[in-house]
Amino acid sequence: MVDQGWSFTSRERVVGATTVVELGGEVDILAATALGLRLDEITGTRHPDLVLDVRDVTFIDCCGVSMLCRTRRRTEAKAGRLRLAGVAESPSVLRLLRLTGLLSTFDLCFDPGSDPAFGLAGETGAAPRTDDACPCTRPHTEDPGRPATPDAPTDSAVA
After folding, report:
1. 120: burial class by Cβ within 10 Å (0-12, 13-18, 19+)?
2. Residue 103 pLDDT greater than 80, yes or no
3. What DSSP character marks residue 95?
4. Could you tell me the pLDDT band of residue 79, with boundaries at 50, 70 and 90?
5. pTM of the predicted structure, to 2 decimals
6. Distances from the Cα of 128 to the Cαs of 125, 133, 134, in angstroms?
């Protein structure tokens, strides 16, 4: 866990072949600089499988969004998979991704810790999936009881 009196935290765990990084607090230039090096290590491997859990992020700025985009590009370049979890629970992340038009560029998934449909082998309560699918916004709609994209009001004004 990264916590050196700064305004952000991160916690990393590995579940099967998936690395889950839980982010919290303010994801600004300080956080992006500190976390960027570790995310570069993770995405520098062959076929990285990464979930960034942003539900506890209280603030994100352009440096934080840039870090997310860099992580997505590096993951795709290595034929990997990046998913964002908890976007609907983080109004600041949801709002900024919507305002920048980047929301649809990320795979959004449900809670990897408590959703048994997520299918991370070894996770408590999770059953491995045989179809290699996850409840993301793209391209499947496996659970009609849950929205495919976070349901929140559209921002009508930009400050």
Report:
1. buried
2. yes
3. H
4. very high
5. 0.69
6. 10, 10, 11
